[in-house]
Amino acid sequence: MAIDPDPSKLETTLTLRDGRRARVRSIRPADANMDRAFFAGLSKQSRYMRFMQHLAELTPRLVQQFTQIDDTREMALVALDDASGDETIVGIARYVAETEQGESAEFAIVLADDWQGHGLGRALMEMLIDGARRRGLLRLVGSILAVNTPMRALATALGFSMHVDPDDARHLIATLELGRP
Length: 181
Hints:
alpha+beta, Aminopeptidase, 8-stranded mixed sheet, 8 strands, disordered N terminus
């Protein structure tokens, strides 16, 4: 699947291993309420694995930061389910480049609990990786809790190298070298 360098044009539908379908597109400012609802529906463990701290709710500032992105240095994908008739976010994957001309970007991903383990995370990460390469980024880097076995396995399967964070042994630094475009 090709990703247009303009993230606002990205839209595709994924079919997961269990047959469920999710529409994937770039996040929009209008997704703020869905983003709040998505976060509220995550288990405490999923919230902790993503944010590495216990957050009860997303602040208005965080919602704005997460939904009003700078397309020149960020890519944020939402996976949407409309099986119930109302569209809901079931996954979010993003990267943020260190600067507009940066060579490196930090990635993060979180999935609704009942959508984990069905291939959605891998598909979203593959789309992020492809988008980062198209942008000319040289590497993706992310911090993963050492106890987050599923994320560690996904990162390893996608070719990320991992080492213990020298500042906090509870975290691993996952790095994927993307190479020169």
